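Posted in: Protein Modeling Q&A

I'm a second-year student putting together a small comparison for a lab meeting, and my supervisor asked me to include a predicted structure for Ubiquinol-cytochrome c reductase complex assembly factor 1. I've never done this before, so apologies if this is the wrong subforum. The sequence is pasted below exactly as I got it from our records. If anyone can share the structure token output, I'd also love a short note on what stands out.
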Amino acid sequence: MELWLMDAALRMYTCCVERINYDEFFEKCTLPDTLNSWFLVAQIHVWMCLVRMRQEGREGKYMCRYIVHSMWEDVEQRSKIMGIDAFHRKESMKAMTETFYAAIFGYDEGILSDDCVLAAALWRNLFNRQCEDPRQLELMVEYVRKQMQFIDALDGEDLLLTGEVKWRPLVEENAQSILKVATPTYNDAGL
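Accepted answer (user: helix_wrangler)
Welcome! Here is the predicted structure, written out as tokens:
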């Protein structure tokens, strides 16, 4: 893989973990402040980047691999810093890997389907089947949809070169569509 592509992938992963207000997610979604909750929120953002980069051909697919590689290195480092011993770290990494690939499958299905399917994937994965407040699910479905629309509109060449992704806030006042569908304008002749 080209070095510049690895740099862009690492930068994109970094955007997934450093530009997110995790405390806001923990509060609004009633998630405990744990390594696992951090991972679940990070994985949604990583997944959204993977979806976007898969549209960019072979280079995008390479970036996807390195983004995921960077994520696993980061998770392992964070668990070491937290003092999780090698045995438990290995078990946790195995469980997180299974969770990640199951979540990716569910989120992919959800983004291609309607809001009910996406809500079910979020309920199973982010909320671990423990969400009693439908407003939290609604907030997350809206968040994923608006984020996907936002990053889909980003220039692919720029993403491949820089890896720079900005995220919209979890909660926005009057969060209407960011892309205005161009309505055709007609002159008097109907042209």
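A couple of things worth pointing out for your meeting: The two ends are 49 Å apart (CA to CA). The first helix runs from residue 3 to 18.
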